[in-house]
Amino acid sequence: MRESSPLLTEADTCRELVTPAIRLAGWGQAPYAIGEQHQITDGRILLIGGKARRAKQRRADYLLYYRRDFPIAVVEAKEAGLPAENGVQQAREYAQLLGLRFAYATNGRRIIEIDYTTGTEREVDRYATPEELWARLNGANGLPAAAQAQWLEPYNLTSGKIPRYYQDAAIRSVVEAILSGQKRVLATLATGTGKTSVAFQVCWKLWNSRWNRSGEYRRPKILFLADRNILVDDPKDKDFIHFGDARHKITGADPSQARDMYFGIYQALTTSSEDVFRQYAPDFFDLIVIDECHRGSARDSSSWRKVLDYFSAATHFGMTATPLREESRDSYEYFGNPVYTYSLRQGIEDGFLAPYRVHRVITTVDAAGWRPNRDELDRYGREIPDEEYQTKDFERVVALRARTQAMAKHLSDFMRGTDRFAKTIVFCVDQEHAAEMRQALVNLNADLVRDYPDYVCRVTADEGAIGLAHLHKFKDVDEPTPVILTTSQLLTTGVDAEMVKNVVLARVVGSRPEFKQIIGRGTRLRVDYGKEFFNIIDFTGTATQHFADPDFDGEPARIEQVTIDDEGEVVEKELSETDPPPEYPEVESEDDPETAGVTSTESDEPRKFYVDGGKVEVIGHLVYDLDADGKKLQVVRYTEYSARTVRSLFPNRDELKSKWASPDTRIEVLRELAERHISFDELVASTGHQDADAFDLLCHLAWNAPLLTRRQRAEQARKQAEDQFLKYGDIARDILRLLLDRYVERGVIQFNRLSDLLKVDPFDRYGTPSEIADRHFGGVPALREAVTRLQATLYQ
Q1: Cβ–Cβ contacts within 10 Å for residue 749, how many?
Q2: What is the pLDDT confidence band of residue 557, given thresholds at 50, 70 and 90?
């Protein structure tokens, strides 16, 4: 390999040394492609003052493809003057992210090869050829030649959907497991990460390559199985549409056996009158895809388990969003460990899922409990048992209308202050509670309901087709209404509504799998429509409880705790108790998954006590934050959190000042603060110091330093900079003085985008930014130097 100059940049090293060496090994010649600067992630979305920004994307220098849709190795390059070892950890990290078993780290002169099939890491004198890596890979997994060809079957990209890196890794892992003869295969991917897309490409590769369990030359028979119509209708009509006439949905009236790609729900396959699934031979299907497999079919005691037992000859591929925990153990015992896992935390970190803020809202009755007055009667004249009722009892044992109205008022006010057309789902205790919540929200938003009759709708099992019609419009990104849906359990899963910006918990959710499904209603991103994050508004302590669990994989950007009165107004008094709420048992709802779509019948006897009077208030505003180890949620005020974060980043005020005074290093300070979700807008709102300089506000909170206003700093700077101004002409001095005036109005951070600042009034009267620089300062470098010195003077 040719010698190189140690002054080569990384780009020079890649162009002059790395790329030629990779090509010399046969890569880049069809069908062995080279992907350069391959984007892996989108970059985490950071919430800064209610605005979203992207963190840095992760990119691999080179991705080596054995076939169009089959990456096999990653190459991480460093500039020639650095040791090749500097790229090893990054190469390993990228290989593990991408699900690859070969990686290389290089500085152009030396090559280090990492081979996960043998567990070795060694220096080599050349890159392996495509066929060498392919032979090593299949020697490790033992796939026969026929299965190898099926593994390489290309994706169906007709829709334009190119699998993301984790979807690609999941597809390859699942197909490899199936081709290896594994009878039960599990993939765990967080809600909103595209499990259906993964399932489609798995089915397509197997179907198009004519894989089947018997090894015959035919296409496989595949069954896509779920527990709700929406979970099979959406995939059938969207992702799986490319199967064309090979698709068929099984119903009792039409158990066709002449197709290849079947869809069915347990309820249709196991009706009360007959087991429809028995009209198919036990060995009819080659593959069964079980969506949301944690929802019951894997349990030994489940009435749906007999479907899987009957078709035991088929390969069973389960998909779930629920990592292994006690409540999901049945799925893992049935399927085994997942062949691929992608968590909610990772999805948010990579920028593929929306981050979220959690607002903890507490009513007085939830904080202290509720007890009836002596001999108090409910709506139906029944005496209410003299007990103390807690959150877990509300709407199950006793229904407090004042509590529901207070929650509805607070939600309405929240949306008035943010976005009244932000798509919102309110999860209520049962269908009756959802109806009462809907009515309260209608009355509180009458001005909008007058023009948009479907502004608030209830979608539960009882609505049937009407509710599904509302849901269809709710999911449409171009339909303005319905805006708010009230429900109990029907919308916990299978609702791919990308524009949901508010997830409201008006009921206790003790089950972690269900909680994650509910959170998943808001995790979809639609940046092109302004959906970059979402809010969880928690009236029951559910979110606080689950986020406090150190095993929960996806901490919030911030958790705010708010208390409200019976009119939904925020009360400034803060709660002193910070203990997490107890775990509450789950109670089945009328629209439970196993009875979804079946109209419930109410008995004449009311199921709970109804209290229409009374007063409910709400109390405080706290912030939940992860501790230094990132494991436990602590309750602190936002200002305290910000002060603690500043002290953790900078040992003293002088170090912060030295970095803040220079625009080059100040950008890094702002990035560090933004990644920790510190917003100056929010600090100003929390403290009321609108005129304070951002630097002074940080120092005041962190070290109790004197708090100067921007005007005070500007006046000091004018005096100190007089001599500095003398070296410039009259117009240049005017421009510098105007910059000080603008600093007084808006702060120093605007100077980070100087060219944009100079394009607007009052600077534009002096010409374009380049004209200002050339005519009055002697060029762009001189202008930047003047503005940099001015900023340094502000903080002397």
Answers
A1: 15
A2: low
Question: Mapping DSSP to helix (H, G, I), strand (E, B) and coil, where does residue 780 land?
Answer: helix
Residues 6+ apart with CB under 8 A from 449: 442, 455, 456
Sequence-ordered list of residues with C-beta below 8 angstroms from that of 79, at least 6 positions apart, any chain: 8, 9, 10, 12, 13, 107, 108
Q: What span, in angstroms and rounded, lies between the C-alpha atoms of 677 and 252?
A: 54
* Contacts with 333 (C-beta within 8 Å, 6 or more apart), sequence order: 298
CB 105 within 8 A of CB 5: no
Confidence check: pLDDT of 437 > 90: yes
pLDDT tens digits along 442-477: 999 999 999 999 999 999 888 888 888 898 899 888
In SS3 terms, 608-674 reads as: CEEECCCCCCECCEEEEEECCCCCCEEEECHHHHHHHHHHHHCCCHHHHHHHHHCHHHHHHHHHHHH
* Cβ pair 440, 568 in contact under 8 A: no
**How far is residue 16 CA from its own chain's centroid?**
40
Q: What is the distance between the alpha carbons of residues 536 and 540, in angstroms, rounded to a whole number?
A: 11
Spell out where 51-101 has E strands: 51-54, 59-67, 70-77
| Alpha carbon distance 576, 573 (integer Å) | 9
Sequence letter at residue 432: E
- Is 257:294 a contact under the CB 8 Å cutoff? no
For tokens 């397509």, name the residue.
204
Say if residue 299's pLDDT is above 90. Answer: no
pLDDT at 668: 86
Q: How far is CA 571 from CA 82, 361, 620, 768, in A?
A: 59, 11, 6, 50
Radius of gyration of the chain (CA): 31
Compute how many other C-beta atoms are within 10 angstroms of the C-beta atom of residue 100: 23
Which stretch of DSSP H or E encloses residue 554? Answer: none
Cβ neighbours for 144, distance < 8 A, ≥ 6 positions apart: none
pLDDT digits (tens, 9 = 90+) for 47-61: 655 567 788 899 999
- Asked if 438 and 486 count as a contact pair (C-beta separation under 8 A), the reply is yes
Bridge partners (DSSP) of residue 545 are none
pLDDT in tens, 573-609: 333 222 333 333 333 333 443 333 333 334 466 779 9
Rounded distance between C-alpha atoms, residue 434 and residue 420, angstroms: 20
Q: How far is CA 168 from the centre of its chain?
A: 19
* Cβ within 8 Å of residue 211, ≥6 positions away: 147, 150, 178, 179, 205, 220, 286
In angstroms, rounded to a whole number, what is the distance separating the alpha carbons of residues 95 and 93?
5
- Which letter, b or e, does each residue of 396-429 get, where b requires 16 or more Cβ atoms within 10 Å of its Cβ? bbbbbbbbbbbbbbbbbbbbeeeebebbbbbbbb
SS3 519: helix
Question: Residue 510's closest CA among 572, 587, 567?
Answer: 587
Sign of CA dihedral 705, 710, 715, 720: positive
Is 145 within 8 Å of 116 (Cβ atoms)?
no
621, 588, 585: which is closest to 607 by C-alpha? 588
162 φ/ψ angles, rounded to the nearest 5 degrees? -90, 125
Neighbours of 627 (CB within 10 A): 10
Q: Residue 637 above 90 pLDDT? A: no
Q: What is the bridge-based pairing of β-strands 534-538 and 356-362?
A: parallel
How many other β-carbons are positioned within 10 Å of the β-carbon of residue 123?
11
Look up tokens 């162009």; give the residue: 15
Measure Cα distances from 481 to 303, 422, 477, 532 in Å.
38, 10, 10, 20
With 0-12 CB in 10 A as exposed, 13-18 as middle and 19+ as buried, what is 42?
A: middle
Three-state SS at 299? coil
